[in-house]
Task: structure prediction
Amino acid sequence: MRFDVPEIEATPADAWWSEAVVYQIYPRSFADSNADGIGDLQGIIERLDYLAQLGVDVLWLSPVYPSPHDDNGYDISDYQDIDPLFGTLADFDRLLAAVHERGMKLVMDLVVNHTSDEHPWFTASRDEGPQGSKRDWYIWRPAREGMEPGTPGAEPNNWGSFFSGPTWTYDEKSGEYYLHLFSRKQPDLNWENPTVRQAVHAMMRWWLDRGVDGFRMDVVNLISKTPGLPDGIVHEGALHGDGSPHYICGPRIHEYLAEMHREVFEDHPRRLLTVGEMPGVTVEEAKLFTDPSRRELDMVFQFEHVGLDQGPGGKFDVRPLKLTDLKASLGRWQTGLGETGWNSLYWNNHDQPRAVSRFGDDSPAYRDRSAKLLATVLHLHRGTPYVYQGEELAMANTRFTSIDDFRDIESLNYHREQTAHGVDEEQVLAGLRHRSRDNARTPMQWDTSQHAGFTAGTPWIAVNPDHTRTNAKAQLADPDSVFHYYRRLIALRHTEPALTHGDFQMLHPDHEQLYAFTRHDAASGTELLVLANFGPADLTVDLPDGWEHSETLIANVPATTPLSAPHTLRPWEARVHRRNA
Ligand code: TEU
Ligand code: CA
Result:
């Protein structure tokens, strides 16, 4: 690995993070050291050896800043401190040092599309009224022309929030509304204001001076809004207008990110990692964001492949996924960012259902094998892979009996809004069971004890009862476990240049059960073939020429037979072959 590269590389494949695997920690659910039921920094410190053993290079921490936790910390009330729930700044410094001691890096979550409504910037903006010095740090607007302020439909525009309801909340005292794309406790910052941008840059430099190695930037492609904030189209069956064309990759987004690069990253002595989370980003836009010569970001999280199994009703309108759609989408991103730019690779995170339940088969027979298949496919793509805590154990979606089992504001608001509009509760719960973000947020499963070794107290959200079957302790002891399979895949990224540098070519794009591709690296003269059977039935495939006697690099089915032509793959079998080319 090449660390400490001071300049931007000509090609992303030369940057240290092109050979890195990132592990996402959701601190609230990772490890609780003081029995208050909530994970904390000391808990993470105590589990660092587990992560070092897995072999990941970078840890990304979801937000640990002071917060009222309306959205589990994505509502920040102080950017330059640690929430007492998680510990102190001194604990943070100890964590960072312990991460660095083990040769890993640490990336912070940067949430600057919005703050908490309890951030002093916002309370000043609200309470000092329209003439106050911080008024234009946020986005305030009067009621719609001719409407009585504060009455239904009088909002400045018709945009619907990500978390249900309108994107506007009325402030009686000043008689105006403020904009919030997420909850009413997450007011959007006004990036048009240069003072706001400078304050954000200064805060980022403060964390870098403390020694952090980069930022994962929350919804960073939403920070520039179309001037005038025009109404959105109201899609059939929707309760609000779709404002997204007016805030996804808005008119000044590239300017803001290039400025941030100049002000924060350009002269920094260490080569950092920056990844922008970007709902709705297109390949064409992503190429601009990640083209090294433009000096904006290193990589982005795109959302296309996690939107393929939803209907017109949105994320809770669950539809079956077609493998051909998944391959077409991921394949297009591989090609689109092949020459210029760089992909980040993920199946799940704290906002998505568990990968094995969504893209694999979480029935007892195939859970572990299909989890290994998914890992194989993802880690063999070109880009930087992200592992979400518990994914390396094949943690699955949990069982939710009633609405009382949920904690997430998105799920609770959706349930309230839909049932209030007469939608059958069972139908609402069915969507939530598949898609609620709480599926990803149940505590990390360390062992078989009462709360899975996560806490000695009462966990803030129930552990998944399947922890007696799926847990870290059992998997560490079993050389065939999903954990050890991830460990081997992660090690491959450090030793096999074709994973980083190889060209990607999709094979059999029209096949509904086979996910197959090659990676060809001219410099090292190697070619890899990846074959994955996405289903519970045997699958006989034609091979491309000349792979019969190739070496098996990794496979998820033990005692794998040599490749023959044609070759039969067993249910959920995945294998990677290597040859000189
Ligand atoms: O998520 C942004 C986002 O677009 C979605 O993934 C969101 O979680 C939701 O599912 C939309 O339906 C980021 C964070 O990752 C998320 O946890 C926060 O809630 C959100 O931004 C606001 O900060
Ligand atoms: Ca705790």
